[in-house]
Design a protein that fits this description.
This protein has 214 residues and is mainly α. It has ten helices and no strands. The two termini are 17 Å apart.
Length: 214
């Protein structure tokens, strides 16, 4: 399956420096612990310049998160195609998701920090915002598979998507520590990890599935 391409925003050099600094600070200190003055100092610009590009701190934060979730929707969601190839598309999605999370570590950390904080902003990120809509799109893909008979009708598609995303997030956030465990040698290769996770999600732990089954 051809990988979808994403459309990146075109930013002025000053705005790019501001976003890079904000991403680092939000990840390290959280939304509440970061001020626009902090961001301006880290970016090497005046506070007026920050406000010229972003009217509010919330607007800047949402711009960072929006870029991440829009890229997820454009690049990754089309890869999950359980109607035509359940296990193969799970594997391709898992590998691409891990690669994307690895390539945007600062944004991943700032989202994870906000989610773990239990703040109202974190609730909005998932329950009401683009992250929640992306999650629902993946669940809908599995439901289409259920309606076509390519996904078991007795599984909860929301739980399956949660397991897929949570495993990838936890791996990327803790890879350096997890790779030292002898029972997790599979995660040393993204391809081997993605293949193993896809097989587990597609076939479960039951021994009734032949070893060479597709």
């Amino acid at each position: 399956m051809a990988r979808p391409t994403s459309r990146r925003r075109t930013l002025a050099p000053g705005a790019r420096r501001i976003e890079s600094a904000a991403r680092r600070l939000f990840a390290a200190r959280g939304f509440a612990g970061t001020s626009m003055a902090d961001i301006a100092a880290a970016a090497g610009v005046s506070k007026a310049t920050v406000f010229h590009h972003y009217r509010t701190k919330r607007g800047l934060y949402e711009a960072l998160v929006s870029e991440a979730v829009t890229g997820f929707r454009e690049q990754l969601i089309p890869l999950l195609d359980p109607v035509h190839d359940l296990r193969g598309s799970l594997q391709e999605f898992a590998a691409a998701h891990v690669a994307r999370l690895t390539g945007m570590q600062a944004t991943t950390r700032l989202i994870a920090r906000e989610m773990l904080s239990g703040s109202s902003a974190a609730t909005g990120l998932f329950a009401e915002g683009e992250m929640g809509r992306n999650f629902a799109l993946l669940v809908d893909a599995l439901r289409r598979g259920q309606s076509r008979g390519t996904v078991r009708s007795d599984v909860d598609p929301g739980l399956a998507v949660f397991m897929l995303l949570a495993a990838n997030w936890f791996l990327v956030q803790n890879a350096a520590r997890l790779q030292r465990h002898p029972d997790l040698a599979v995660i040393n290769s993204t391809d081997a990890y993605a293949a193993g996770l896809a097989r587990l999600l597609a076939h479960g732990l039951s021994p009734t599935v032949p070893e060479d089954s597709p």
